[in-house]
Amino acid sequence: MAATLPTSFLLIMALFSCLYPMPSHSSDPDPLQDFCVADLTASPSVNGFPCKAASAVTAHDFSSAALSGKGNTSNAFGSKVTAANVLAFPALNTLGVSMNRVDLAEGGLNPPHTHPRASELDIVLKGKVLIGFITTGNVYYSKVLTRGELFVIPRGLVHFQRNVGKGDALIITSFNSQLPGAAVLPTTLFSAKPSIPDGVLSQAFQVEESVVDDIKAKFGS
Ligand SMILES: *[C@@H]1O[C@H](CO)[C@@H](O)[C@H](O)[C@H]1NC(C)=O
């Protein structure tokens, strides 16, 4: 019977619905069953993978050694991210959680990146690490953390981790998504295939195209 309500009442209702924060649904959808160990051989559907037959699931499916090995940090960034997402650990399918380990050599950097589908909670297990993120309003929040300390990165925001201590550092990062995704800004922009036109990047960063070419060359593009 909304048509019979006074316009002023409807306007007030509309105003209140804007003022009250809506409950947030920012993680993966809830599962519809106890477990759904992913059948990675099937094509991904819109949301995750089909389930392996329950009769074929064993205790072995629910454990993983995906993060047990130290990542090889002998590369330009001095860092290595090892993922325990649904692709590495199929039992995470539909459960809305995953983890990475981030190994950082002395001075190593996990370069600025975003996870489009998850917030991230980090715990430093070894070393001294500068972790920072930037809001969509361009405010930079950061902290130097040591063993046992936590830092949270809100979903989708650009962030990085840098080893600022002596020796190696190790961080475990956890996500409220089985497959958080990562857009690593330097590689996204400078080693996309096919390549982003030089003119776009030189205009975006206000530098000569030769500078863009230099950066692209460093990423093998
Ligand atoms: C680490 O990576 C470097 C560069 O790719 C490679 O030369 C080296 O053999 C790797 N080390 C190990 C232990 O795999």
From TrEMBL:
Alphabetical list of CDD domains matching this protein: cupin_OxOx (cd02241)
Domain Cupin type-1: 65-213
Disulfide bond entries: 36-51
Sites where the protein binds oxalate: 100, 110, 115, 120
Any Gene Ontology biological process: regulation of root development
Localization (cell): Secreted, Extracellular space, Apoplast
Amino-acid positions noted as binding Mn(2+) in the UniProt annotation, renumbered to this chain: 113, 115, 120, 159
Principal subcellular localisation of the protein: secreted
Alphabetic keyword roster: Apoplast, Disulfide bond, Manganese, Metal-binding, Secreted, Signal
Protein name: Germin-like protein
